[in-house]
Write a structure and sequence with these properties.
This protein has helices spanning about 25-30, 45-60, 70-80, 130, 155-165, 210-220, 230-235, 270-285; strands at about 5, 10-15, 30-40, 40-45, 85-95, 115-120, 135-140, 170-175, 180-185, 185-190, 195-200, 225, 240-245, 250-255, 260. By secondary structure, the protein is of the alpha+beta class. The strands form two sheets. Strands 7, 8, 9, 10, 11, 12, 13, 14 and 15 form a nine-stranded mixed β-sheet that branches. The protein has a six-stranded antiparallel β-sheet with strand order 2-1-6-5-3-4. A hairpin with a 2-residue loop joins strand 10 and strand 11 (about 195-200). The protein binds N-(5'-phosphopyridoxyl)-D-alanine (PDD).
Length: about 290
């Protein structure tokens, strides 16, 4: 089946979809994105992703071209056309096509480009990796200073992912000034006793939508949450570690730079939080 993608209001076979070579997203990484997971045909945490999309656009002074209802309708249309039960919907909004290359932003009435596509991932919630956990390695965080804006400039995270693979790991935890910022495409956590530690929100990390939900569920389950930065050494000495994202949900981390975390196997807190997250977010899925 040829995948149908969305480009500026049209539903098009993927091999016929077109975006200009002058699009600012292509030339300048001048665009933002969201990834929403789909479980049992339902969009998970959709509202939170829309709130963050609007914040990212506004931080870059890109006009939001669609209403939340339009975005929702397009997500649903793509799920139906591509027969998606479990998977992801990727949404990207760029500053559009000014018709030439220039460092200055084009006039404010330049129409943003909106692209959306689906990725089918049957059994997404039952990923085998959730049973064995991820190995992570540390790398320097060499990204820019506004990581709270979900821009499409993902080259450094991509390089970090490749370094992790080359070192026999599943992902990299990025470190700045001696402290972990986040994973290449996820937020990072450690667990010590009944306390979950994760870096506080700032310009240094993406404000994960899954993070917000998981911390809420953790507090409701009477766990203590400390929002502060931690070092790799502290993480290696923790009882457990895990990451969260829209595509990995809650994913246990079992080793860091070759050192086992806790027992070196998937820990009970991560397992429980994954269960709660999947259960609760399915209830509120749209
Ligand atoms: N990445 N931190 C970074 C750097 C991310 O790229 C992501 C998400 C997260 C987690 O955010 P959320 O819980 O809202 O998905 C944290 C997406 C999944 C991606 O790029 O594919």
């Amino acid at each position: 089946m040829t995948r149908t993608v969305y480009v500026n209001g049209d539903y098009t076979p993927e091999d016929q979809a077109m975006v200009s070579v002058f699009d600012r997203g292509f030339l300048m990484a001048d665009g933002v994105y969201e990834v929403v997971s789909v479980l049992g045909g339902k969009l998970i945490d959709f509202e939170g992703h829309m709130v963050r999309l609007k914040r990212s656009l506004s931080e870059l002074a890109i006009a939001n071209p669609l209403s939340d209802d339009d975005y929702l309708a397009a997500h649903r249309e793509l799920l139906a056309r591509n027969d998606i039960t479990d998977g992801l919907v990727y949404l990207q909004v760029t500053r559009g096509n000014p018709g030439d290359r220039d460092f200055a932003y084009p006039p404010a009435d330049t129409v943003p480009t909106v692209v959306m596509f689906t990725q089918s991932k049957p059994g997404l919630a039952d990923a085998p990796a959730a049973k064995t956990g991820w190995k992570v390695v540390s790398v320097d965080d060499l990204r820019w200073g506004r990581r709270d804006i979900k821009t499409v400039q993902l080259l450094y995270p991509s390089m970090a992912k490749m370094e992790a693979k080359a070192r026999g790991a599943d992902d990299a935890w990025m470190v700045e000034d001696g402290r972990v910022t986040e994973g290449t495409s996820n937020n990072a956590y450690i667990v010590k006793g009944n306390t979950i530690v994760t870096r506080e929100l700032s310009h240094d990390i993406l404000h994960g939508i899954t993070r917000a939900a998981v911390l809420r569920f953790a507090r409701e389950a009477q766990m203590k949450v400390e929002e502060r930065a931690f070092t790799i050494e502290e993480a290696q000495g923790a009882d457990e570690a895990f990451v969260t994202s829209a595509s990995a949900f809650v994913m246990p981390v079992v080793s860091i730079d070759g050192a086992a975390v806790g027992s070196g196997t998937v820990g009970p807190v991560a397992v429980r939080l994954r269960e709660i997250y999947l259960e609760e977010s399915l209830k509120t899925g749209v």
